[in-house]
Every structure is written in structure tokens, then in C-alpha cells.
Specification:
The protein has a single domain (27-215), classed as Muramoyl-pentapeptide Carboxypeptidase, domain 2 (2-Layer Sandwich). The protein contains 8 helices and 7 strands. The chain has helices at residues 4-13, 67-84, 97-111, 114-120, 154-162, 177-180, 194-203, 207-231; strands at residues 54-55, 60-62, 64-65, 88-92, 134-139, 168-172, 185-191. Helix 3 (97-111) packs across helix 4. The longest helix has 25 residues, at 207-231. The protein binds zinc ion (ZN).
């Protein structure tokens, strides 16, 4: 009995399917407008990608997100207010490639080199905010934004516990730094839709690993499907 890997390689050799050079590498989804598109330091998005965004009707300043994400954010903020009486605010949503580029070059100017700047700021195209699906969240009552202490606030704890119910995931949890390439950011939520958010929450894993999981499931289906064909009389 051939292993799954042997079968995959045989299929690839027969030209039945394409196989990536590394089965363990997380591959980005093809659909940049899809809910699971992976954007990180490794998988950067073109400067030409600009999603259609609207302003979410929530307190804050940079509330722009894609329409489905904006609606979910409004729903989540309202639920937090109702549940624990905390008013959340949008600190920073959609960020264009151009804006990322400005932020990056300002940082390079300030610290003197790209190597140093890379420690603090993502290169243009590497910020998930470009997808229009990410939001940096804070408590309306707080002056200080986007620090790890948000995770210890009432609002921060509520977001960590409940955001999946509204289709969001905490993208950069503590302990995931080696996978995500980003430090702990309790304020950064990413919209993936309720169905996927529930699955990711249940599996308690970074998006990179979840994509790997569903990719392997898809490959298994191809292998099992081709086996059935072979076994048929
Ligand atoms: Zn963010």
C-alpha cells in the first residue's frame, strides 16, 4: 500500500495534478478577494490590489473595511457593549499599499537601515490591513492604543473570547510569532467569516496552519477520489 505522499508524487509525475515543492509550506489562497487569503511577511500582495471598502459605523477614526467585514465589526462592537458595557473603537482598518510604503520608508529614515526597520514595521504589501479585512481595535475610554496591555483590559479579553462568533480571528496570538512572523497583537482582528472563524477558533491555530490543514484535506480528497476510480471495475 503506497503512502499518501507516494500517491501524490505518482499523480504529479503522471501530470494529473501539480504539486508544490514543499507540502509543508503554507500556500496562499488564489483568490485575493476571498475570505481566507493569506497575507504576511512571506506572502506579500501587489501594489495594485485595492479592495472596495466602506466606513464601518463604529466609534474611532480609520474605520474603512470591506462591506461584509464592516457589518460584522458593527455587530461585534454592539455585542460587546451589550455584554459587558465596554465601547470599543476602530483604531486602524484598511491600509493601502501606498500608505504601508510611506510608513515603511519613514521608519527606515528614522532608524537608519532597512534591516533595523524590518524589526518594527512590515514591508509594503505585507500588512494584512491591505486586504480590507483587518481592524486594530481599542477601548474607547483608553488613550493608549495598540499595546499588548489591551489584551488585559475588559474589552480586550472579551474580543479574544468572542470575536470568532462574529467572523473574526485574533491573528497574532502569544506563542505564534514564529509562524505568523508578527509579535503578539491582541488588538488586531482579521475577518474570515463566521464559518471559518468557528473552525479556526475550535482548532486554536494560526491562519497559516489552518490553511495547511484545509489544503491537506483537499489533497486527500483528490487522492482518495483517484483511488476510487482505480478501484472501480
Ligand atoms: Zn493590525
Amino acid at each position: 500500500m503506497a503512502t499518501v505522499l507516494e500517491q501524490l508524487l505518482a499523480l504529479a509525475a503522471a501530470g494529473t495534478m501539480l504539486i508544490s515543492s514543499s507540502l509543508t509550506a503554507a500556500a496562499p489562497q488564489n483568490d485575493v478577494d476571498g475570505l481566507l487569503f493569506l497575507q504576511n511577511r512571506q506572502w506579500r500582495v501587489s501594489k495594485y490590489y485595492e479592495p472596495k471598502t466602506i466606513k464601518a459605523a463604529v466609534p474611532g477614526q480609520l474605520q474603512d473595511m470591506r462591506a461584509d467585514a464592516a457589518a460584522a465589526l458593527e455587530e461585534m462592537f454592539a455585542a460587546c457593549k451589550e455584554d459587558i458595557g465596554v465601547t470599543l473603537k476602530a483604531v486602524s482598518g484598511y491600509r493601502s499599499y501606498q500608505r504601508q510604503s510611506t510608513i515603511y520608508s519613514n521608519k527606515v529614515d528614522r532608524v537608519g537601515s532597512k534591516e533595523k526597520a524590518d524589526e518594527y514595521v512590515a514591508r509594503p504589501g505585507a500588512s494584512e490591513h491591505q486586504l480590507g479585512l483587518a481592524m486594530d481595535v481599542g477601548q474607547k475610554s483608553d488613550d493608549v492604543n495598540l499595546t499588548s496591555s489591551f489584551g488585559k483590559t475588559k474589552g480586550g479579553k472579551w474580543v479574544a473570547e468572542h470575536c470568532w462568533e462574529y467572523g473574526f480571528i485574533l491573528r497574532y496570538k502569544e506563542g505564534w510569532e514564529d509562524v505568523t512572523g508578527y509579535s503578539y497583537e491582541p488588538w488586531h482582528v482579521r475577518y474570515v467569516g463566521k464559518e471559518y472563524a468557528a473552525m479556526i477558533h475550535e482548532n486554536e491555530m494560526p491562519l497559516e496552519h489552518f490553511l495547511l490543514l484545509i489544503r491537506q484535506d483537499a489533497l486527500m480528497e483528490i487522492v482518495l477520489g483517484s483511488n476510487e476510480e482505480v478501484a472501480a471495475p
